[in-house]
Design a protein that fits this description.
Layout: H1 5-44, E1 50-59, E2 62-70, H2 75-82, E3 87-97, E4 105-119, E5 124-130, E6 143-147, H3 150-158, E7 159-166, E8 177-185, H4 192-195, E9 207-214
Antiparallel strand pairs: 1-2, 2-7, 3-4, 3-8, 4-5, 5-6, 8-9
Length: 220
């Protein structure tokens, strides 16, 4: 038994050295990844989203929203989706009732999930739209359309045409209500290492928020 003790004692310094080497490599990789994400976040910051022709329409079967969103994909995102990484977007429309005695009440919420993918074999772009989150393992119940170019695919995402966001009964002109519309890049659909880019303080850039008081003259 004693004959093995020198071997065990000599192995401990080697284990410590190996552990320090692994820790040094991990810190180096983390630094490289952090610098990469910061650079990507800086490029996203230049990609503002604007909205034009924002309209609300009320009919017998519901309240509809139409708008044209304008934005450009940052070069890093465009390169990533061209290489096969899908991009997800989320549109959310909330009808809120203002309350002076408590926090505002959520009256109605509608969501639309969009996924943009590139198909290398056919060299075509695909856009899927769903009322439910689109999981990485499958598209679920969604509508899909193919396009010949990226600008055409983006145009279909940016054009919101008569999206039913609420029931007519949800709109009460006698109370103080507002519509909160939000469009954003769905970070949860990105590969997990890239999701940490959201920690960079909003540098991803692809986001739009508009709050509109709901009055009689709010509807076209």
């Amino acid at each position: 038994m004693d004959s093995f003790m020198p071997c065990l004692k000599s192995a401990k310094p080697m284990q410590r050295a190996w552990g320090l080497c692994i820790a040094w490599v991990q810190r180096g990789l983390q630094a490289v990844l952090l610098n990469l994400l910061l650079c990507m976040g800086a490029s996203y910051a230049d990609s503002a989203v604007v909205a034009e022709d924002f309209q609300l329409q009320r009919s017998d079967d519901g309240v509809y929203l139409s708008a044209r969103l304008g934005f450009d994909l940052p070069p890093s995102l465009e390169d990533a989706v061209t290489r096969g990484m899908p991009l997800g977007f989320v549109m959310q429309a909330d009808v809120m009732r203002e309350r002076w005695y408590w926090s505002d009440k959520l009256v109605s919420r509608s969501e639309r999930y969009v996924r943009l993918t590139y198909q290398p074999l056919s060299k075509r772009w695909r856009v899927h739209v769903s009322a439910q989150p689109i999981q990485s393992t499958g598209l679920g119940v969604s509508m899909g359309q193919s396009y010949d170019s990226l600008p055409e695919a983006l145009l279909s995402i940016q054009r919101v045409s008569r999206w039913r966001i609420a029931d007519v009964a949800a709109i009460d002109a006698s109370t103080k209500q507002r519509l909160e519309f939000r469009f954003r890049l769905d970070l949860s659909q990105l590969p997990q290492p890239l999701q940490f880019g959201s920690l960079g303080g909003g540098g991803w850039g692809l986001e739009y928020l508009q709050s509109l008081k709901l009055q009689e003259d709010s509807f076209k």
